[in-house]
Amino acid sequence: MIMEMRVYRCLPGRLPALMKRFDTLTLKLWDKHGIKQAGFYTTLIGTSNQELTYFIAWDSLADREKKWTAFQSDPDWIAGRARSEEDGQIIDNIVSQLLVPTAFSAVK
Questions:
Q1: How many domains does the chain have?
Q2: Is residue 53 part of a domain?
Q3: NIPSNAP domain: from which residue to which, for each copy (predicted)?
Q4: CA-to-CA distance for 55 and 99, rounded, in angstroms?
Q5: For residue 94, what are the β-bridge partners?
Q6: Half-sphere exposure of 29 (CA within 13 A, CB side)
Q7: In sequence order, what are the residues at sequence separation of 6 or more whose Cβ sits closer than 8 angstroms to the Cβ of residue 5?
Q8: Phi and psi at residue 16, in whole multiples of 5°?
Q9: So what's the pLDDT on residue 108?
């Protein structure tokens, strides 16, 4: 298993728009494409309270490539993303890391 950690830093005041997009659009499309989320978090204490951090569980790099590419090219995603940004850009930057569990990790 591979875990992908993604951190979205939003433009000021745009975190609610990002969370709405995940809640009403993105997660439904992930289900359609077989993408398994492993948790979503906002920052309580840290460098920015305008961040959304989440994890995706992948079976392999090939699994990620296949499913993420299909999701990114889905016409419903492309149109929905555009609609969600009609009031302006939401995300300032994205950091993505692919992580593998250690031998002693509780999550394998």
A1: 1
A2: no
A3: 3-105
A4: 10
A5: 8
A6: 21
A7: 53, 54, 55, 96, 97, 99
A8: -60, -35
A9: 75
